[in-house]
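Structural biology now treats backbone shape like a language. To illustrate, our science desk offers a sequence and the tokens encoding its fold:
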Amino acid sequence: MSGKLLAFLLAGGVLGLMFGLWRMGHMPLWVPLGHLAMSLIAFTAYSIDKARARDNGWRISEKTLHLLEFFGGWPGALVAQQLLRHKNRKTEYQVAFWIIVLVSVAVLGLWLWRGFPDPDTFSFLISR
């Protein structure tokens, strides 16, 4: 099985599972929608960075790419790595990427097991 196909299956499977869990009432809608939106943003950032690498232009920092992955964009980043062949050979980058994926999946698993936080918990962050 090719890396591209595997990346599409994994990313699509995870996002599909999240939407399925939402439909069954086990997850708030903002979780799969947030991951989908961040995946599109991460894919776009990888595309821009790849183009700039080819043109010797200003690059998007690896820290920024990792932040996009951390905040839910790792499925889109995984697809971009395989489809665009970008950042998929740098061992140090890949180690950090897969640690981010494992932490993300662990946090989602913990939330599913313990229950998602009530949005009002974070109301202090929004000034009224």
The first helix runs from residue 3 to 23. The chain has a mean pLDDT of 88. Residues 3-125 form one domain.
